[in-house]
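Reading a protein record of the kind used here takes only a little practice. An example makes this concrete, so a full record is given next.
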Amino acid sequence: MSSRDISPQAYARIGGVLYLIIIALGLFGELGRGGLIVTGDPAATAARIRASEWLWRATIAGNLVHLACAVVLTLVLYALLSPVGRHLALMAAFFDLTSIAVEAISKLPLLAALFLLGRAEYLRALEPAQREVLSYLSIRLHAYGFGLSLIFFACGCLVFGHLIAKSAFFPSILGVLLQVAGVCYLTNSFALLLAPRLADAIFPFILVPAFIGEASLCAWLVVKGVDVQRWH
């Protein structure tokens, strides 16, 4: 895509707004849903979900909207950074799109958790306590699915961060911060897979630098955009 095909400043502003929406909806999903989950207690978790079914459904819907925004943001970042390194930008975009697909699929267990707590006739084949445990296990499965998606997203952060740091139209510190975010996501996800106790010990602190890195890039895109002369 050549400089005649796009306006880099317009892309930057669009990307910043999309990033802002993604962060807001992501926080809504994690905090809203997290408030309904009682760690290690399927019965209490089930009671909270039944009492706030609309909130549970709203967090899932919000996550899907933020994933749709993430697809467009991936295009924006590719368009902005492909002049720095087209093949690397394409690779980062593929990592991000893979992450989006895996995360979207990981939302299905959240619906399964809700279905298990419903009043459908066929659910009477299971005892209430069994349904609550299965619902809780579905929620745990979502957590691991989300962790898997972050591995691919982290790889995208590392590559996009490299391109940002190498570019002349973004401050290099933004690229470094995005790469730090990628390392934090990788650490958290592999700890979840390989050392769950370690993951419990470092979460959520390990994600604070990741939030700072992504929020910094979001703010820069919204407020400053790109140095158009250097981009061209």
About this structure: Residues 8-231 form one domain. The two ends are 12 Å apart (CA to CA). The chain is about 80% helix and 0% strand. The chain has one domain: 8-231.
